[in-house]
Write a structure and sequence with these properties.
It is built from eleven helices and ten strands. The chain is α+β, with helices and mostly antiparallel strands and 316 residues long. Among the domains are: 10-36, no CATH class; 52-124, no CATH class. The strands form five sheets. Strands 1-2 form a two-stranded antiparallel ribbon. It has a two-stranded antiparallel sheet with strand order 3-6. It has a two-stranded antiparallel ribbon with strand order 4-5.
């Protein structure tokens, strides 16, 4: 209070402090300081201290991203994350995912939309933004035999290669490049347009995503699968990951139609799942949310009932 109190407002501040909480006093003082010309130095300091740090942990196979932004810029990013999360409309297959995991998925969706050019106002990406993944062809073609090497889990590599630009680089046994091919698109623009016209949205039962969808090779091209409409289907990024890394499979039924099978062998119903199919009977106080979910989806409503450990403290 002493930093903002003066002869003209001391009595008013004291009166306010006697009838409110410490947190509200702190907020009032901060607002008062922000309303003066002296706050310019704070704004300049916050802008000068903006930073983003990326820490790769090869042992855990993760990347930690720590970002510090001015308050108003940070809130802009937070709103973008909220929109990307709500637009994803995750299905009941992801009901066990935590709130922080969905926020992470939203960040990945934003990055993917920008780099792929799906956002209307984004610029075309150049080779400066290519992500290089080293993998042996033998690992791609015979992943079940354990042959070859890969810098990422092989199913993750296959998912990334389903619908992306690829550059084939031949290497010798020492990892030295021998020849470099031209950058090619695994799924051409014409095929992708025809695929979108046919499928219209994600083909996983019950999913109606029209954004952030990939062209999935039912039989992967590295195993001899053709890049043709008969061997392709649209999958949103969430369900695409379920197929490659989540143990879900795609098979044909007796009528030669594609259907999805869960890791436990059960077929996914063609109509998809209802929310109540994956909720225990003893749901207590969240029953109202299931019958009348909020605009952001069921997971948006139940976040207040989920307790998560506090995030780790980063020291810089």
């Amino acid at each position: 209070m002493t930093r903002v109190a003066g002869a003209h407002n001391e009595a008013e501040l004291v009166s306010f402090a006697l009838r409110t909480t410490t947190a509200r006093i702190e907020e009032r003082c901060r607002e008062m300081k922000m309303g003066t010309v002296e706050s310019l130095s704070d704004a300049q300091r916050a802008f000068a201290n903006r930073s983003l740090r990326v820490h790769r942990n090869a042992e855990r196979g993760t990347i930690s991203i720590t970002v510090e932004l001015p308050l108003e810029t940070g809130e802009l990013v937070e709103k973008a994350l909220d929109k990307a999360r709500d637009d994803s409309l995750s299905g009941v297959e992801f009901v066990d995912e935590s709130w922080s995991a969905r926020q992470a998925d939203a960040l990945v969706s934003m990055a993917g939309a920008y780099l792929s050019g799906n956002a209307e106002q984004t610029r075309n990406t150049s080779d400066d933004y290519l992500v290089t993944i080293h993998v042996d062809q033998s690992a791609l073609a015979h992943s079940n035999k354990g042959n070859g090497r890969s810098s990422l889990p092989i199913e993750s590599v296959k998912r990334l290669c389903c619908d992306a630009h690829t550059v084939i680089i031949g290497e010798n046994a020492m990892g030295e490049p021998l020849n470099i091919g031209r950058k090619t698109r695994t799924v051409s623009t014409a095929i992708k347009r025809a695929l979108i016209a046919r499928d219209k949205c994600c083909t996983f039962p019950g999913c109606q995503h029209t954004r952030f969808v990939d062209a999935h090779h039912i039989r992967h091209w590295s195993a001899g699968g053709e890049t043709s409409l008969d061997n392709l289907m649209l999958l949103c990024s969430q369900h695409h990951k379920l197929i490659h890394e989540g143990g879900f499979t795609i098979e044909r039924d007796f009528q030669n139609r594609w259907f999805f099978r869960r890791p436990d062998g059960q077929a996914v119903p063609a109509c998809g799942y209802r929310v109540t199919d994956t909720i225990d009977d003893d749901i207590g106080e969240i029953s109202g949310l299931i019958n009348n979910p909020p605009a952001g989806g069921l997971l948006t409503g139940v976040k207040s009932f989920v307790s998560e450990p506090s995030p780790p403290a980063y020291w810089h």
